Amino acid sequence: MAVEKEKKSCGQVMAEWRQFIWDPRTHQFMGRTGTSWALILLFYLVFYGFLTALFILTMWVLLQTVDPHMPKYQDRLATPGVMIRPKTEALDVTFNVSNTETWDHYVKMLDEFLEPYNDSVQAATNAACRPGRYNEQPDDGVPNYPKRACQFNRTQLGPCAGRTYGYGDGRPCVLVKMNRVINFFPGDNKTVSVVCAAKKEEDVAQLGDLALYPANGTIDLMYFPYYGKKVHVNYTQPVVAVQFLNLTANVDHNVECHIRAANIRADDERDKFAGRVAFKIRVNRN
């Protein structure tokens, strides 16, 4: 016949817990003496100290192989990406001409982006380079010697250089820029330009006329190559402004802009941003 286990009172349970936490007879804290606790703490201190030192040593060795001025591997950057400003989450520029609140944030984005392009800032920090050729600057035996950047003045963008950027009268401007790639020579010594059009041929008439600034959407070779932000400190990225002169109102327009250059592909279906960018623009009128 099974013997029933004696049920302990609440006081007995509490007494056992107190004895477990601190036993005055054996001077044990939670079942261990002070010496035992000290040895355990010492073990974990040494163990985790070793792991920390090993991690720091590994990171230090890794960082010795990294050049702070240039990425070690650039094999995936054969074709630079393209982006627009104002930059919205879905690359969707939609506004109502008569409602300032719907386009004022686009103006603020462009103001902020173009602030370093002010003519006065460019004159103070960058050089007036010779156009039409690459601005190569060899180190001449001094590794990572600071490079001079060429001026890109805001006034080159014509009516897309400021004020409301055309949003106030329904002729909006969108800036197109090519992402920076270190030591990349676009164009293979030939003209580089931006070309924009409706994504579908049947939408060309509704999209209307486009104006590009600088003229013909040209990106001068003098802004290349780019040497990296630590060496090319004041580098100003060239941009092309696209102004939509007579968009059909209250209609979604799907636009694609791509870089036209001898060594830049813009037809890779696996990468929608390689050498091109697609966005939607819509101008609503009451």
Automatic annotation (TrEMBL):
Function field: This is the non-catalytic component of the active enzyme, which catalyzes the hydrolysis of ATP coupled with the exchange of Na(+) and K(+) ions across the plasma membrane.
- What are the protein's UniProt keywords? Cell membrane, Disulfide bond, Glycoprotein, Ion transport, Membrane, Potassium, Potassium transport, Signal-anchor, Sodium, Sodium transport, Sodium/potassium transport, Transmembrane, Transmembrane helix, Transport
Q: Which residues form the signal peptide?
A: none
Report the family membership: Belongs to the X(+)/potassium ATPases subunit beta family.
Q: A Pfam family name for this chain?
A: Na_K-ATPase
Question: Its topology with respect to the membrane?
Answer: Single-pass type II membrane protein
Question: Which GO molecular function annotation, any one, does this entry have?
Answer: ATPase activator activity
Q: In which compartments does the protein localize?
A: Cell membrane; Membrane
What is this protein called in UniProt? Answer: Sodium/potassium-transporting ATPase subunit beta
Record has Cell membrane as a keyword: yes
PANTHER family in alphabetical order: SODIUM/POTASSIUM-DEPENDENT ATPASE BETA SUBUNIT (PTHR11523), SODIUM_POTASSIUM-TRANSPORTING ATPASE SUBUNIT BETA-2 (PTHR11523:SF26)
Return one Gene Ontology term, BP aspect.
intracellular sodium ion homeostasis
TM ranges: 37-63
Write out the GO cellular component annotations: sodium:potassium-exchanging ATPase complex
* Native organism: Alligator sinensis (Chinese alligator)
